[in-house]
């Protein structure tokens, strides 16, 4: 790769891209509220409305059944025991056991239904997140670390699972139970109930104070998990580089630093929870003390029966259970809220490269490309191109040469509209790139780069990536045209051979020929060759030059090259320095001028001769 952008983003094992964590234009995202989280979850969950209604019915039935046992207890103490009604005892016991069985069954049904709904919500949310990431432009991925994005799609979405599957149902159950029991207790004795409810504002205040701190701590935990994931992804990808520099100990220390931050963040969360739960329990015991003292006082004055006091204590526990549950669920909610914030940071990020309203589909191209006074800079860096103009004639081979950082690869990226220039216009066959749909543009452009991207799968699947609906015969024909069929058929499994992650089982020349076969299968009108042969040996280069001759026939081609031997037959060669064209012409014309191209040629060809 050969411009300022690429030199600024070199790979560093375990380091990601400079530790960057930026979204959109770099503005700090507004924290997503818990309310907005529940609204979005409900938006997905309501699609499963039959299961949702069934779960709600089960919850209401559970809440109503929980009234039964305290009433049976009160009736036994106040009526059966004083009247010695032995004949009713078995009925009471059967009623308690029947209620317990019914409660167990209803809870099983509601939990199973909510787990199913939760998984479907997560399925949709994760797909929405991934689909949105696919829609974002290249600059988004320049700004953000791969490991961090992976963590948001996997870890952060998974964190929501527990809350959706169980915590949301528990919250709904507790809210319904709390409301119903509070009304019933007010009806039994409003004075005692109001004394109990007086402790709840303190519980709410405590929950709010600790909730904010927990959410911040959970956010730190999840960011540290993303750091660990990013380091792991980079170090595993660069394991050969690490071993070649005997940097195993160095990387282990760096990994330990990240896992230590994760450990410290988790300890902070545990400490907050350890302080929060005893406070809630203490407030619950205050409520129990009020019932015992004030209830006993009322019983001594014959204003309340003993059975009613026992039932009141049972209802008190039912009333306090939602608070106890919430004190535990708050951890899940705050952790989920922190995860949801990180997810929404991605979803709320808007693509910078977008199709204008009314963009047209680009018709089949001839391939004439023109840059008119184009200026471009990556982010806030200095300009790579400034008032730059260039024409690529249709059906011709145009080559760009020059020093690293002169803007050659940037030109290729602008043609594919991976980025938009800040000023100027780029046209293809007279159509401004901003006036046509992205799909119709990129479908007619093929890129063969020095940095070959192959996916873990078979050889055939990787070639077919150029055209997903291609037949086996078309795949074989493309491989033959790319001079790749020979080595493919030498493998026992042929086109079904697994190539490993990033094509690790193939040589550099073999990988490059697969990428050319993929481009041939796509059959684009415009071909961009970005240092396509710079890292190959002489034999591999000859194979690939023959393959490229097949690929380029009748197409517009832009060749970016350091090896001047690969572009001697180009129809036009442009020499770039610092984003400007310093000379242009054919190979022979440029040599005769004794300018910058001639200097580059004289530097390279003694080495080439020596190698031969």
Automatic annotation (TrEMBL):
Gene Ontology cellular component list: plasma membrane
Gene3D superfamilies: ABC transporter type 1, transmembrane domain, P-loop containing nucleotide triphosphate hydrolases
Membrane spanning residue stretches: 47-69, 89-109, 171-188, 194-211, 279-298
Pfam family, one: ABC_membrane
PROSITE patterns with a match to the protein in the record: ABC_TM1F, ABC_TRANSPORTER_1, ABC_TRANSPORTER_2
Domain ABC transporter: 369-603
Membrane topology: Multi-pass membrane protein
Chief site of localization: membrane
GO molecular function: ABC-type oligopeptide transporter activity; ATP binding; ATP hydrolysis activity
InterPro entries, alphabetized: AAA+_ATPase, ABC1_TM_dom, ABC1_TM_sf, ABC_transporter-like_ATP-bd, ABC_transporter-like_CS, P-loop_NTPase, Type_1_exporter
Compartment list: Cell membrane
Residue stretches making up the ABC transmembrane type-1 domain: 53-335
Name of the protein in its database record: Subfamily B ATP-binding cassette protein MsbA
Gene source species: Paenibacillus prosopidis
Source taxonomy: Bacteria, Bacillati, Bacillota, Bacilli, Bacillales
């Amino acid at each position: 790769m050969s411009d300022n952008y690429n030199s600024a983003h070199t790979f560093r094992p375990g380091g990601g891209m400079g530790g960057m964590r930026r979204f959109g234009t770099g503005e700090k995202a507004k924290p997503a509220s818990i309310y907005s989280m529940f609204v979005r979850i409900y938006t997905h969950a309501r699609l499963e409305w039959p299961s949702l209604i069934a779960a709600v019915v089960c919850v209401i039935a559970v809440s109503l059944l929980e009234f039964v046992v305290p009433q049976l207890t009160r009736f036994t103490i106040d009526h059966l025991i004083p009247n010695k009604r032995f004949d009713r005892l078995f009925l009471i016991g059967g009623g308690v056991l029947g209620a317990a069985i019914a409660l167990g069954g209803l809870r099983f049904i509601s939990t199973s239904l909510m787990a199913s709904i939760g998984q479907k919500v997560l399925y949709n949310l994760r797909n929405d997140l991934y689909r949105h990431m696919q829609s974002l432009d290249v600059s988004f991925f320049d700004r953000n670390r791969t490991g961090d994005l992976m963590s948001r799609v996997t870890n952060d979405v998974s964190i929501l699972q527990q809350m959706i599957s169980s915590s949301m149902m528990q919250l709904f159950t507790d809210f319904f139970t709390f409301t119903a029991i509070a009304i019933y207790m007010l009806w039994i004795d409003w004075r005692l109930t109001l004394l109990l409810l007086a402790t709840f504002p303190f519980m709410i205040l405590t929950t709010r104070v600790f909730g904010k701190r927990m959410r911040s701590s959970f956010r730190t935990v999840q960011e540290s998990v993303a750091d660990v994931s990013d380091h792991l992804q980079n170090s595993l990808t660069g394991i050969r580089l690490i071993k070649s520099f005997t940097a195993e100990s160095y990387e282990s220390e760096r990994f330990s630093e990240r896992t230590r931050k994760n450990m410290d963040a988790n300890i902070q969360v545990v400490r907050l929870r350890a302080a929060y739960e005893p406070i809630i329990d203490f407030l619950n015991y205050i409520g129990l003390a009020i019932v015992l003292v004030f209830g006993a006082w009322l019983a001594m004055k014959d204003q309340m029966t003993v059975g009613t006091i026992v039932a009141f204590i049972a209802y008190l526990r039912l009333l306090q259970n939602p608070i106890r549950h919430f004190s535990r669920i708050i951890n899940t909610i705050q952790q989920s809220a922190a995860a949801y914030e990180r997810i929404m940071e991605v979803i709320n990020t808007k693509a910078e490269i977008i199709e204008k309203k009314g963009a047209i589909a680009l018709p089949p191209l001839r391939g004439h490309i023109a840059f008119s006074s184009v200026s471009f800079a990556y982010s806030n860096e200095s300009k790579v191109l400034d008032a730059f103009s260039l024409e690529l004639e249709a059906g011709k081979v145009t080559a760009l040469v020059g020093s690293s950082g002169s803007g050659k690869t940037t030109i290729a990226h602008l043609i594919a509209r991976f980025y938009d220039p800040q000023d100027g216009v780029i046209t293809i066959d007279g159509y401004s790139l901003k006036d046509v749909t992205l799909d119709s543009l990129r479908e007619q452009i093929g890129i063969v780069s020095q940095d070959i991207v192959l996916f873990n799968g078979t050889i055939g699947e990787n070639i077919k990536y150029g055209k997903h609906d291609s037949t086996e015969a078309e795949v074989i024909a493309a491989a033959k045209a790319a001079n790749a069929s020979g080595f493919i058929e030498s493998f026992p499994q042929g086109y079904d051979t697994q190539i490993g992650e990033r094509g690790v089982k193939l040589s550099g020349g073999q990988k490059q020929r697969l990428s050319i076969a993929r481009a041939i299968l796509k059959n684009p009108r415009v071909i961009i060759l970005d240092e396509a042969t710079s890292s190959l040996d002489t034999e591999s280069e000859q194979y690939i030059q023959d393959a490229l001759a097949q690929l380029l026939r009748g197409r517009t081609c832009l060749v970016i090259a350091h090896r001047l031997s690969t572009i001697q037959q180009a129809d036009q060669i442009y020499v770039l320095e610092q984003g400007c064209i310093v000379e242009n012409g054919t190979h022979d014309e440029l040599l005769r001028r004794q300018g910058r191209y001639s200097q580059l040629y004289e530097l390279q060809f003694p080495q080439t001769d020596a190698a031969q």
